[in-house]
Amino acid sequence: MSIKHGLLALLAPGPKYGYQLKAEFEATTGSAWPLNIGQVYSTLQRLEKGGQIEADGVPDDDGRVVYALTPAGREELTGWFRSPIAQESRPRDELAIKLAMAVNTPGVEAREVVQAQRRQAMSSLQSLTRAKASVPDEDLARVMVIDSLIFAVEAEVSWLDRCEARLRKARTVQIPEKEAVQ
Fold first, then answer.
1. Which residues, 6+ apart, have CB-to-CB distance to 53 below 8 Å?
2. Entry pTM
3. What pLDDT is recorded for position 76?
4. Which long-range contacts (CB under 8 A, 24 or more apart) does 91-99 make?
C-alpha cells in the first residue's frame, strides 16, 4: 500500500495539515490501514523534499503546518491513478512462505498450519461482514475497501482449501518419515 500516494490524493482537493490527513486517510479506508502520525509526517517530509508537496506558510497558533500539492505532486498522483498495480510488485506473501516452510520442516504438521489459518480467516470474514453492514451504501470508498478485504479473505480460504487437498493427496501418495524439530 502506498501511503505516499494516498496522502497525495487527499491533498488533491486542497491544502491540509498532517493530523487532518491521518484522519481522512483512516475515514476513507474504513480504518483498514491505521496510520500513526509519525508515519504521516515522515511521508510528508519525503514528499516535500521530493518537490511533490509544499508547506503553505508558517505554522498556525496550534503549531500546525498546512501542506499543498505541487504540480509535480499532481503529476505523480495522475501517474499513480493511471498505472495498474502489478501482482509481482506487492510484498512477499508471508502465509505462502510459512506453508512452504511447514511442508518441508520435519516435525511440523502443515495441515495444522492450514487449519489455524482457516480459523483466523473465518474470524476475519465475520468481522468484515459485520463492519460492512454498519457502513451506509453512500460511503462508497469505505464499502469498496471492505469489499476488497472480504474478497481477499475469501480467496485465501479457497487457496487454503486447495492446499489442504494437495496435502491430503500427497499424504496418500507418500508418507515420508520426518525427523522431529528439536
1. 8, 11, 44, 47, 67, 68, 69, 70, 73
2. 0.69
3. 93
4. 95/156, 99/163
